[in-house]
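Incident review: delayed structure delivery

Summary: a single-chain prediction request sat in the queue longer than the usual turnaround. Root cause was a stuck worker, restarted by the on-call engineer. No data loss occurred. The affected request and its eventual output are reproduced below so the record is complete for anyone auditing the incident later.

Affected input:
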Amino acid sequence: MIDWDLCKFRILRQLQRQGTVTAAARALSLLRAERIKRAVFHWHKASPEVTRAIVDEGFYISVTPETCYRQRDQELVDTVPLSSLVIETDGPWPYSGEFEGRPTEPAFLGRIVDAIATIKGVAWEGVAEIVTANTRQLFRLP
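Output delivered after worker restart:
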């Protein structure tokens, strides 16, 4: 059976990947208009106001290994509740910092959890548990 919400979500994800503030705002508007209830804003780079609106709608925001070294991403993590975060590597992608020159791999996820735990001032296990639950809910996994 086709999951139309997931299909729409993938299309909107491609729109949002443009990386501009207006793309995120437009994607949010389309999600609202289509009454889509599950979505993730991939590699999110919108304004704090758009970010707040995304979170208020119950959508997820994904963060990447850039959270480990880029201030903008650290500030995003600081403002977004754990209940709205998912993590990803978005590989293959040539990251900087401690990941420079390394092929993107799932092992980076643990470092993202480390960074989130440090930024939020909470235990690693708590972050891992919450982002795992968020991912399961987003993709309807058991």
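Verification: The longest strand covers residues 60-63.
Action items: add queue-age alerting; document worker restart procedure.
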